[in-house]
Amino acid sequence: MPLNRRKFLKKSAVTGAGVALAGAAAAPAQAAEKERPGRPAKRYSLTVMGTTDLHGHVFNWDYFKDAEYADAAGNAMGLARVSTLVNKIRQEKGRRNTLLLDAGDTIQGTPLTYYFAKVDPITAQHGPVHPMAQAMNAIGYDTAALGNHEFNYGIETLRKFEDQCHFPLLGANALDAKTQKPAFPPYFMKKFQVPGRRR
What we know:
The chain has 199 residues and is α/β, with parallel strands linked by helices. Helix content is 26%, strand content 17%. The chain is built from five helices and nine strands. The strands form three sheets. It has a five-stranded mixed beta sheet with strand order 3-4-7-8-9, with helices on one face. It has a two-stranded antiparallel ribbon with strand order 1-2. A two-stranded antiparallel sheet has the order 5-6.
C-alpha cells in the first residue's frame, strides 16, 4: 500500500488546520557514542519540526469571510502562528539543534497566492517577492518539499518562488521532460555539530 503523505503526517505530528508541527513533544532523536565501561554514553538531541499544506496562509486569516480563521475545533493556521511555536522550541532546544521542514502545497490556496501569481505576479520584471517566501525565509526554514499544488501556476512562477527562497525546494519525483533527470534537488544534507565532538 503506497504511503499517503497526509495520513502519515496526521499520525506522526501534532496537526492543526493544515499545519503540522512535529518535535515539540516528540521524543528527541539521539546519537550516542559507543558506551565504555563505567561511563554513560554521550547523547545528542535533535528536534525536527515540520509544516505541511500551508496553502498560502501567512496569517491566521480567512480571506473569504474577511475575519480571523476559526473552526469548530479551535484550530488556527498560518506562518505567523508557526513562527511563534518555532521560536519557542528553538529557544528551548537551541537553534543549532533543530531542523525545520515543509512538506509542500505552499504557494496555492488563498486569494493572497492568486494575487501574487496573476494580479501582481512575482514573475514580472521587478516583480514582488512572494509573501510565502518572505515569511518562510524570516522563520528560517531549512528546506521544503514540492507538493502537487506548487505547479498550479506554472513552472515559471515556481522557479521564481524557488529563486526567492533562502532554502532548497526538493522534488525527487519531479523530472525534466527532456533529460529525465531531477528538475529539483532530490534531497539535501545538513551537518550538525555535536557538542564536545571534533568537526
